[in-house]
Amino acid sequence: MHPRTLLAAASIAVAFNALSQAPAPAPAPAAPKIDSMRIAQAPGDRPIDSATASAILHLFETMGIRRNFDKMLGMVFDNYRVSMPSVPPETWDEMRKEIKTDDVITMLLPIYARNLSLADIQSMDAFFSSSAGKHYVDAEPQILQQTMAASQAWGMEIGKKVVEQLKMKGYVKSS
Questions:
Q1: Radius of gyration (C-alpha) of the chain in whole angstroms
Q2: Which residues lie below 8 Å from residue 119, measured CB to CB, with a gap of 6+?
Q3: What is the per-residue pLDDT for 42?
Q4: Other C-beta atoms within 10 Å of 140: how many?
Q5: What angle do CA 155, 156, 160 make, to 5 degrees?
Q6: Distance between CA atoms of 93 and 77, rounded to whole angstroms?
Q7: pTM, whole model, 2 decimals?
Q8: Would you kindly state where each structural domain of the chain is located, as residue ranges?
Q9: Residue 15 near residue 76 (C-beta atoms within 8 A)
Q10: pLDDT for 89-144, tens place per residue?
């Protein structure tokens, strides 16, 4: 499964139902200016050159990462509003304004640089700029929603089988 898919699925499991019903977002703002001191690199990572950083940032825009994270954050805060109605809306608005999508973009940049070559990044960008790539980006919210539902059902089935086997072997008492 695509790493971005896993990250998104894990980040917004509670919000997937609303994802396919969300209105289209406003156009994405310009790519952030990356401060090389803010890029959280792992020990042993090679420095990220400007060509690679620029290519990754362009790829992120092509892949719709900013749009997806903005949408996910909106849904997460919508869920908070529903689950904690006693908190004034202004409080949620203030908290949401403090969370910047650029922060996650900056976090992801070294991950892509660590795991992909510049040629890989450029090839991915070419794909996501193609008709098929754009279709994938548009379909991804539904793919994520359906993947999460299928994964949850699969996990539940595996859990039942494990418990049944443990009961049969006497490790777990039947209730």
A1: 20
A2: none
A3: 72
A4: 19
A5: 115
A6: 9
A7: 0.65
A8: 3-18+27-141
A9: yes
A10: 999 999 999 999 999 999 999 999 999 999 999 999 999 999 999 999 999 888 98
